[in-house]
Specification:
Blueprint: E1 5-11, H1 15-26, E2 33-39, H2 46-53, E3 58-61, H3 67-75, E4 83-87, E5 91-93, H4 99-107, E6 111-120, E7 135-138, E8 143-145, E9 148-149, E10 152-153, E11 164-166, E12 173-177, H5 178-183, H6 196-206, E13 210-221, H7 232-249, H8 252-275, H9 279-294, H10 296-301, H11 303-306, E14 317-318, H12 322-327
Helix pairs in contact: 1-2, 6-7, 7-8, 7-9, 8-9
Length: 344
């Protein structure tokens, strides 16, 4: 019998996306899956819509908006299955999106998490910002993707169609073994939203697990369904959570010299936003740093959870600085730097 897959969709006031994209999930050609919608105390008619028009969906109603990370943790507490799929409400899946990933993960028990190729719903032949064809980080913890470096998304011409180990899988469509999810205590609820999947995958990698991308599986993502990429609130969460992710997961030897450089690069990002006229983003970066400093003893204490019994798998880390490579060396395609990414 095929492994049981639970597609878990976290919802907060996105009835329009549920109505538009949930039907595509039911057209999945995999024989053994359920759909659970975890509702983060929506104030629109999302739940009423599901009860009336999607009776096969299991609804988990939360008492308040826990955010993305803790929302999934709360919603999946009592859910049983072999695999969980974290799927955004603004994702349209293709019929064959599930089979290739489950088959791939069943062949290698060390693969704890995986993802499909994520293309833009609006521009179907281009990779989508949130994950593209697999996520990576540079030596200072800055994330980028196979098919997307900073804001530049490449056209998908099949150049990244190989299955490969990556550093992180996108939370927009992430497959994870339920046993490993529970072992890792899910996502870090302190993140609320943004960067939590990178922290989760980094913790997996520190334990020696693999994270992969299977491009034969394909989905289409609208992106920015809750917060747009230009949202100062998203900027604040991204910069704060990036610092938390680094402090939790990097070795002390790396932190001593890499964290000051990260502070400097964040400062330069703030200055750049200022010159671009994005005052809100500059202020958001300053706020992110103050929030990080205010909670520093707590963030350091979380290292005890992530820095024990380590067997680090460092594949998927770019040996250079993606900031320098992109802005100074003007390299904006993943293929231009692929040779400098660590492999097993």
């Amino acid at each position: 019998m095929s492994p049981k897959v639970v597609v878990a969709i976290l919802n907060f006031n996105t009835r329009n996306f549920l109505e538009k994209f949930l039907p595509s999930v039911w057209h999945t050609d995999y024989p053994n899956f359920d759909v659970v919608v975890i509702d983060n105390a929506s104030t629109d008619d999302s739940v009423e819509y599901l009860k009336t028009h999607q009776p096969k969906v299991r609804i988990v109603q939360l008492s308040k908006n826990f955010g993305f990370a803790k929302g999934y943790n709360e919603g999946l507490k009592d859910i049983q299955g072999d695999y969980f799929v974290l799927l955004n409400t603004d994702v349209e899946v293709t019929p064959g999106w599930m089979n290739p990933i489950i088959q791939h993960m069943e062949l290698d028990i060390r693969v704890a998490a995986s993802m499909p190729k994520i293309l833009s719903y609006k521009e179907g032949h281009y990779f989508e910002y949130a994950g593209a064809s697999g996520g990576f980080i540079d030596r200072f913890g800055y994330p980028f993707c196979r098919g997307r470096v900073f804001g530049e998304c490449e056209k998908d011409d099949g150049q990244y169609n190989s299955i490969r180990e990556v550093f992180w899988a996108s939370g927009a469509a992430m497959f994870v073994r339920s046993k490993v999810w529970k072992e890792m205590n899910g996502l870090d609820g302190d993140f609320f939203a943004h960067m939590e999947e990178i922290d989760f995958c980094w913790r997996l990698k520190n334990k020696g697990y693999k994270v992969t991308c299977v491009p034969d599986a394909r989905v289409y993502h609208v992106g920015g369904g809750t917060l747009t990429r230009e949202s100062p609130r998203k900027t604040r969460l991204n910069f704060r959570n990036a610092l938390i992710t680094i402090i939790k997961n990097m070795s002390m030897g790396e932190l001593i010299w890499k964290l000051p450089i990260k502070f400097l690069l964040d400062g330069l990002a703030g200055i750049r936003f200022l010159f671009l006229g994005h005052w809100g983003d500059t202020i958001a970066i300053i706020q992110a740093h103050f929030l990080f400093y205010a909670g520093l003893p707590y963030w350091i204490s979380k290292r005890k959870e992530t820095r024990t019994k380590l067997n680090p798998n460092k594949s998927g880390i770019y040996k250079g600085s993606i900031v320098w490579t992109y802005f100074i060396r003007k390299k904006n395609h993943f293929s231009q730097i692929e040779a400098q990414i660590t492999k097993r």
